[in-house]
Amino acid sequence: NDARRNHFLSEGMGFINGLRFNPNASLSPQQINAIKSEIGDNFYDVTVSDILSVRDQLSAAFEMDNVKNDL
Questions:
Q1: Is 63 exposed, middle or buried (0-12, 13-18, 19+ CB in 10 A)?
Q2: How many other β-carbons are positioned within 10 Å of the β-carbon of residue 35?
Q3: Tens of pLDDT along 26-67?
Q4: Distance between CA 5 and CA 10 in Å, rounded?
Q5: Buried b (16+ CB within 10 A) or exposed e, 18-28
Q6: Are the C-beta atoms of residues 13 and 37 closer than 8 Å to each other?
């Protein structure tokens, strides 16, 4: 369902955008921009591979690889 997918992707982008305001940031602004670029502006073009890649980058940055498949 396009509406649900786009809703969840927009929430994810909001979360990623918020990471730049963390005073103890685990990701640089450049890394955050790269992640956002991977998702892109058109949520209809986002693939499962894109989502998994972003998940892997975030889980590595926050040392959550052991639970990333549960999120």
A1: exposed
A2: 19
A3: 899 999 999 999 999 999 999 999 999 999 999 999 999 999
A4: 9
A5: ebeeeeeeebe
A6: no
Tokens 């369902």 identify what position?
A: 1
Specify whether the CB–CB gap between 39 and 10 falls below 8 A.
no
CB 25 within 8 A of CB 19: yes
Task: Read off the pTM.
Answer: 0.83
Whether residue 43 contacts residue 6, with contact meaning beta carbons closer than 8 Å, is answered with: yes
Q: How many CB atoms lie within 10 A of CB 54?
A: 19
